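Recall the central idea of this unit: under ordinary conditions, the amino acid sequence of a chain determines the structure it adopts. In this exercise we apply that idea directly, starting from the sequence alone.
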Amino acid sequence: MKKSTLKKIAVTGVSLAAVALPIVALAGAAAPDLGLEYAESIGLGSRDIRETAGSVIRAFMGLLGIVAVLLVLYGGFKWMTAGGNEEQVGEAKKIIISGVIGLIIIMSAYAIATFVVNAIINGTT
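Accordingly, the structure predicted from this sequence is:
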């Protein structure tokens, strides 16, 4: 064999040994103390992270839904106060259409996110 090939094999062997040695040494040891059992004693919740992520997503989607409904209401108010001005009525129609499209997108995203979070929770429990 060439000298460079032997050198590569030696370096690879030493690297693997350096990585594997701590793993083998810790295989029989107890799990490290990560402090997870102290959460309740200092006032943190004990809720599962998947449920927490689902709650955050639902709250965010709810907030976006409220914004979209307010946008539709604003467009309706602008239309009612247009006083027959075609330019303002056209602008109000665009605002209402944008709000409805946004609401449809938000509701679709909410449905997809709820499905994914429920699938993750049911698949891992």
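Helices lie at 3-27, 49-80, 86-124.
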